[in-house]
Write the structure tokens for this entry.
Amino acid sequence: MTMMKRWLLILAAALSLSGCGYNQFQSLDEASKSAWSEVLNQYQRRSDLVPNIVATVKGEASFEQDTLTKVIEARAKATSIQVSPETLNNPETFNKFQQAQGELSSALSRLMVTVERYPELKANQAFRDLRVTLEGTENRITVARNRYIQTVQEYNVLARSFPTNITAKIFSYEPKPNFSVQNEAQISTPPTVDFSAPKK
């Protein structure tokens, strides 16, 4: 009889754990880590491209050094931040990493805009190939970030919903930080459009 009670208690405990979202937390936590790894993979791919882009652009003797310096500095800052699985649960570290990657994105964008003023550089096949690879990488980063955002959203909904929020409190499953827009105030301001012809 006591053996039967033990088995019933074990069965009840197992059922209560599965019904309280414990297994879902494990599954979504692993999914978010996997999605985050893909984001890091794509950021690394972009970071690896930067030295080749800089080397190619340096071949244009008259190219603005300031623009190149900003790209090099932004890459150095982005790669200096150590990222670990704990980063996902630390909003401050996550935000620093996100800002550094945003600065690298901005520096690369400015570089590409500046290149438009250099016809010889635009015509350089090696640079064109690097530019296409960079554009593809930026697209991959967007896809990877979207997957990460989705998995974190599912995890956070589970952590905040009843009754699984009780499990979250018991096992200290805090909501995870997600990507946010760094320049929210700037992008919420409507752009000024001027169709008048430029003055000569």
Remarks:
- The chain has eight helices and no strands.
- The mean pLDDT is 83.
